[in-house]
């Protein structure tokens, strides 16, 4: 179709003539509402970003952490989860701390309880014993 004819048809319908690709000869064009097209593309992009789950953020808790510091780390984890990120909580164990694994598990469970008070969480990977300590991965339950 001739360019002038296509422009006239688009103008009559109160739409836009948009070039789809310029790699072929003659160029391929569409008659569409460009504003709606841009909006739908942005919507698709936002939806795909939400589904990706964000990044994996790390929070390290020490074996001897106090209750107040545990609450501070929980608030930091809450911010990460609200942004749609996953959070990996680590507790490295050194030396004689490895002999007190039940105490370390208790600290991790207390951290999760504090975190659940503020927002619902989903445990993606359960508490796992690794060579250097314990780890757990959580996501937001929203």
Explain what the structure shows.
- With 142 residues, the protein is an alpha+beta fold.
- The chain folds into two domains: 3-51, Ubiquitin-like (UB roll), CATH 3.10.20; 56-140, 2-Layer Sandwich (Translation Initiation Factor IF3).
- Helix content is 44%, strand content 29%.
- The protein has helices spanning 3-12, 34-51, 67-82, 101-118, and strands at residues 16-21, 28-32, 56-60, 86-92, 121-130, 133-140.
- The strands form two sheets. The chain has a four-stranded mixed beta sheet, with helices on one face. Strands 1-2 form a two-stranded antiparallel ribbon.
- Helix 3 (67-82) links the parallel strand 3 (56-60) and strand 4.
- The longest helix has 18 residues, at 34-51.
- It is rod-shaped.
- The relative contact order is 0.12.
- The model has no long low-confidence stretch (mean pLDDT 90).
Topology readout:
Blueprint (H helix, E strand, L loop, with lengths): L2 H10 L3 E6 L6 E5 L1 H18 L4 E5 L6 H16 L3 E7 L8 H18 L2 E10 L2 E8 L2
Parallel strand pairs: 3-4
Antiparallel strand pairs: 1-2, 4-6, 5-6
Helix pairs in contact: 3-4
Essential attributes:
two-stranded antiparallel sheet; Ubiquitin-like (UB roll); 4-stranded mixed beta sheet; 142 residues; Translation Initiation Factor IF3; 6 strands; alpha+beta
């Amino acid at each position: 179709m001739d360019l002038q004819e296509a422009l006239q048809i688009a103008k009559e319908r109160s739409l836009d003539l948009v070039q789809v690709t310029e790699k072929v000869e003659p160029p391929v064009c569409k008659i569409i509402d460009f504003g709606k097209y841009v909006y739908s593309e942005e919507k698709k992009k936002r939806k795909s970003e939400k589904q990706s789950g964000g990044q994996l953020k790390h929070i390290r808790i020490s074996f001897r952490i106090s209750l107040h510091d545990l609450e501070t780390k929980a608030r930091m984890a809450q911010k990460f989860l609200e942004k749609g990120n996953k959070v990996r909580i680590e507790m490295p164990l050194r030396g004689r701390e490895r002999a007190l694994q039940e105490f370390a598990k208790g600290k991790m469970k207390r951290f999760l309880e504090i975190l659940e008070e503020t927002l619902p969480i989903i445990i993606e990977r359960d508490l796992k014993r690794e060579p250097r300590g314990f780890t757990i991965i959580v996501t937001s339950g929203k």
